[in-house]
Amino acid sequence: MIAFAAIYRFGNGLSMLVELLDTGLGGKPLVATVETHWNRLSDYYDVEWRGQWATELGGAIVGHAIHNHDLVCGVLGPVASVQAELATRVNPIETEDCASILCRMQSGALVTSSVSLGSAVDQSRLRFCFEHLTAESSRDAHNPATAPWQLPGGCYGRPRVLAVDL
Description:
Blueprint: H1 2-9, H2 12-22, E1 29-39, H3 53-56, H4 60-76, E2 79-87, E3 98-105, E4 110-116, E5 118-130, E6 134-136, E7 149-155, E8 158-162
Parallel strand pairs: 1-4
Antiparallel strand pairs: 1-5, 2-3, 3-4, 5-6, 7-8
């Protein structure tokens, strides 16, 4: 699991965004959205320890969305406060498999996170809005930090794509 998380954090698309932000071109962080919409149906929970508080210590947030939340903190810094609604809507398990989360970062930026383990397709997406640019991740469910990332409004209104030729 640790190596998996490291792949997220050091993805080339996210690295390029961080380098761009380090130049100061982004300006003040405003808001971000995080979507962790994966499919984990009943056969996933056939493994005895999954979906139980005593053995998994949490559900969709700490077992799945944590990787995307780590990326948000890597870009926007520490969390100041959290509000959340959790639910078990997909499978008959002890832990949550859906969540709606609102975070205020120490920078003042607001982050919303939508988590579901009942999505028809596995997909993750991160979208950051800064004073002067907006950036959106790839939609690779298990590695959204990889290129290409989109800059829909670009920087100062010029569209850009953060991509790497591999």
